[in-house]
């Protein structure tokens, strides 16, 4: 039995397009290489080809491995698809922390504790208009036999205020009941709900990342993953204060660290620049933005990105992008037509066309 992942159909670079002034110079994403496992595509969902581009990447992988691609998305169009309930959080919470003999730095304990702390506080703020720390200043749990949600449950049950108690126990029950993932032709999708508060949308994002992280902890077979995070624009924008954004960064950081430890690539598909910089994502694709935290049409940005990019947009070429390798500083303007995105056997550097 193999103890490593092997699928020659997807164990290849993804040809994304070509350098605009050099059609023979390909732009490729070495998505299974840990050094290039993070990619951000920033652009308006309507005025740019971002969504089509990301969907094509997902489709290319999913058609050869229907267990590889996961989405966390605010796109509501897949609600009619069949649903799979993932109970990995509850499964993992019924298991103890890893002993210090195997986890001397307590990475597992620290990471598993981040998710419930952030999730329950966001649900408290979003549904109950209160802060978790005002009622649950700290928790303890029997780490030799269980996870932290059991400690939270015991504390929630002891809260005297019935409204506060029911809000928190309701959030806990939502975790225990499992997380819905929609089965689609481009992978499994968690759909961030619409029509709720920004805190509840952020909590849903956290819950989905918690579910994905727990699922990875649970499976025993070797598996390559692509996780596409397509956040709700309203959550990424606006004056939410630093706490909400810090919560998003903390949980995304847990996921991003997995790219250094496991066969996982993370693709952030966003209307906004936040949290691309905060996550130090390596390869960055900039398309036309609109009503974003990054105005691509300021004089400063036009000077930085170069007039060629804007000429292409004026022609209606919404798939032309500025591609940057944040680590090396190399960049180019590229034609990333979604219809042409495909696997290739060639071996070239990511993002620069070299």
CATH T-level fold name of the largest domain: Rossmann fold
- Which word captures the global form? globular
Distance between the termini: 38 Å
Q: What fraction of the residues are assigned to beta strands by DSSP?
A: 15-25%
User: Do you know the CATH architecture of the largest domain?
Assistant: 3-Layer(aba) Sandwich
Q: Level of helix content?
A: 25-40%
Q: Total number of helical segments?
A: 10
CATH uppermost class of the largest domain:
Alpha Beta
- Ranges where pLDDT stays below 50 over 5 or more residues in a row are 346-354
* DSSP summary, beta strand count: 13
How would you describe what is shown here?
With 354 residues, this protein is an alpha/beta fold. The protein folds into 2 domains: 1-86 and 180-197 and 225-354, 3-Layer(aba) Sandwich (Rossmann fold), CATH 3.40.50; 88-177, no CATH class. The chain has helices spanning 50-62, 88-93, 107-128, 148-157, 162-176, 198-218, 233-236, 242-261, 299-305, 307-314; strands at 13-19, 22-29, 38-42, 69-73, 83-86, 179-184, 187-191, 225-230, 264-270, 283-286, 320-325, 331-335, 342-344. Strands 1, 2, 3, 4, 5, 6, 7, 8, 9, 10, 11, 12 and 13 form a 13-stranded mixed β-sheet that branches. α3 runs antiparallel to α6 (198-218), α3 (107-128) runs antiparallel to α8 (242-261) and α6 runs parallel beside α8. The longest helix is centred in the N-terminal third of the chain and has 22 residues, at 107-128. Mean pLDDT is 92; it is low at 346-354.
């Amino acid at each position: 039995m193999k103890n490593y992942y092997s699928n020659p159909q997807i164990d290849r670079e993804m040809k994304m397009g070509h350098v605009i002034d050099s059609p023979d110079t390909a732009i490729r994403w070495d998505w299974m290489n840990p050094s290039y496992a993070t990619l951000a595509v920033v652009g308006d969902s309507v005025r740019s080809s971002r969504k089509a581009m990301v969907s094509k990447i997902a489709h290319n992988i999913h058609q050869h491995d229907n267990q590889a691609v996961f989405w966390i998305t605010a796109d509501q169009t897949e609600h009619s698809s069949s649903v799979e309930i993932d109970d990995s959080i509850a499964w993992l919470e019924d298991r103890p922390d890893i002993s210090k003999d195997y986890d001397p730095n307590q990475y597992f304990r620290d990471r598993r504790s981040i998710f419930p702390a952030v999730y329950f506080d966001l649900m408290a703020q979003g549904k109950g208009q209160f802060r978790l720390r005002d009622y649950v200043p700290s928790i303890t749990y029997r780490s030799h036999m269980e996870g932290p949600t059991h400690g939270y449950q015991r504390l929630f049950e002891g809260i005297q205020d019935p409204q506060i108690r029911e809000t928190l126990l309701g959030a806990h029950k939502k975790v225990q009941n499992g997380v819905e993932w929609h089965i689609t032709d481009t992978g499994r999708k968690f759909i961030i709900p619409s029509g709720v508060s920004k805190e509840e949308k952020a909590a849903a994002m956290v819950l989905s990342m918690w579910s994905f992280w727990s699922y990875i902890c649970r499976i025993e077979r070797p598996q390559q993953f692509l996780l596409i995070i397509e956040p709700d624009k309203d959550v990424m924008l606006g004056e939410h204060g630093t706490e909400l954004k810090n919560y998003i960064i903390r949980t995304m950081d847990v996921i991003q660290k997995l790219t250094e430890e496991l066969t996982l690539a993370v693709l952030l598909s966003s209307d906004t620049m936040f949290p691309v910089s905060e996550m130090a994502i390596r390869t960055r694709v900039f398309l036309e933005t609109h009503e974003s935290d990054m105005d691509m049409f300021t004089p400063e940005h036009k000077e930085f990105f170069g007039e060629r990019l804007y000429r292409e947009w004026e022609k209606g070429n919404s798939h032309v992008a500025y591609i940057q390798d944040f680590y090396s500083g190399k960049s180019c303007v590229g034609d990333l037509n979604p219809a042409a995105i495909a696997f290739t056997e060639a071996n070239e550097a990511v993002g620069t066309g070299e």
